[in-house]
Protein: Major facilitator superfamily (MFS) profile domain-containing protein
Organism: Panicum virgatum
Amino acid sequence: MEGGVNVADKAEFKECLRLTWTQPYILQLVLSAGIGGLLFGYDTGVISGALLYIRDDFAAVEKSTVLRETIVSMAVAGAIVGAALGGWMNDKFGRRPSIIIADALFFGGALIMAFSPTPTVIIVGRVFVGLGVGMASMTAPLYISEASPARIRGALVSTNGLLITGGQFLAYLINLAFTKVPGTWRWMLGIAGLPALVQFILMLMLPESPRWLYRKGRKEEASEILRKIYPANEVEQEIDAMRQSVEEEVLLEGSIGEHGLIGKLRKALGSKVVRRGLMAGVIVQVAQQFVGINTVMYYSPTIVQLAGFASNNTAMALSLITSGLNAVGSVVSMFFVDRAGRRRLMLISLVGIVVWLAVLGGTFLGAAHHAPPVSNLETQLLANQTQTCPEFNPDVPWSCVNCLKAASACGFCAHQGDKLLPGACLALNDASRRTCRADQREFYTEGCPNNFGWLALIGLGAYIVSYSPGMGTVPWIVNSEIYPLRFRGICGGIAAVANWVSNLIVTQTFLSLTKALGTSATFFLFCGISFLALVVVFFTVPETKGLQFEEVERMLERKDYKPWKRYQGVSDVEPAKNSEIGLTAP
């Protein structure tokens, strides 16, 4: 999961509902910008199902795990570049043009993918979509926060986060809807262009962020927009508040004393407070990805097939459960993060992740040990109509697992009466698939038939439930609270890049790991990494619940600072005596 999270309480959500009902302009503005979050989530979810059918249409994709990983991960690579460009474009040209350009890139990428004649062209389309996703992920929350009333800002930005998980769920529904339609994956990927087109048109009719306009000296334009957002009796007060906020922001930027990126970075890393905060912020962002969540979000139907469900339709239908649980977990987090605390919620989440990844690893290990053997008789029976797997030697005992690991790419055709009985090992091609299915058998290309599949699905669902309320959302909250205000932009950017790069590494290696190590060993590897993350988070990430920004700085400045020690508030956090954080004792 990528994207910032603002925490809002119940009263803020009630006020949000009241204001959007009485002032529809606010609702129009936020939903128009929020489509960016929907697109972000949709792209994450849609490729997981589309990949099954891309694999069926292109033999090169079916036979190459690296090519499949590249199709998925190039959107993440594009998003890294898009996020960097988005940050620069936001300041240079404004929030509104950045969202419009992101829509154009997304729409273009969707069309390229829908009409792709080769896997290479699909990859090009994925890069375009990734650029759009990266720009939208940076810009949409910023636009919403700057163009919405302060008292409901948290609720509206949280809505953008919900639209991301809603987009993932919608993607799985649309994937299911197009499984029987000719062109399956082309529709799945191409239909994403519609909401991008809708947002493009809506953003042309919406104003620029008033805060950006004010910073650029276009104060009258900013005032006019605020008059549409706020009641008449509140407008002047809000204009004055924005003026003070912008002036304070300019002063903070000036206090850094450096204008170039390298200079600002050097200044930031020279502060003990920033180093401690940045270490905690980057660790939780990297941990969020290295516990393996995007293996589930990008490869969920493939994992279901690894669990022993051969049908594409069944795999996608069961994957819908994981997406729904992820959405529910995001909502749950909003209610518990201020009660349980950030640190505690992450640690509890990581304990659950470790346990359920171990269960998944054990389940896949049991499934591999009980995989049905390959029968020479069954193989010869079907080999008259198609091609036997080149590596198969009837004198050497083989199981389904050996068949699927064959270097020349082979598939396992299950027994006609009982899929757990010995089956045939055939070359992986359309002729083999047709021959097997014509005989009322199931053809397995990812995982083997077994009786452990439902246990794997339960483990997968429990893993999502453990991840989503804690490690899914809290790292972004920690990163919004742990940096000194004047360094928040550059530190937040570093942590976000660490998140995207970690996402890219996990996405680009998951299928290769399952082929090289086996599915069970891959999940045990993620289990080990998650346990390491649990230990590192415990010793490096402090609790920021209930602390003001100044109190967080003072906590990080303490000589006896211990991340695992709870600091309650001003009375428990000694005033900073070092001028590096720029605070004086009260």
Summary: Residues 301 and 314 are 9 Å apart (CA to CA).
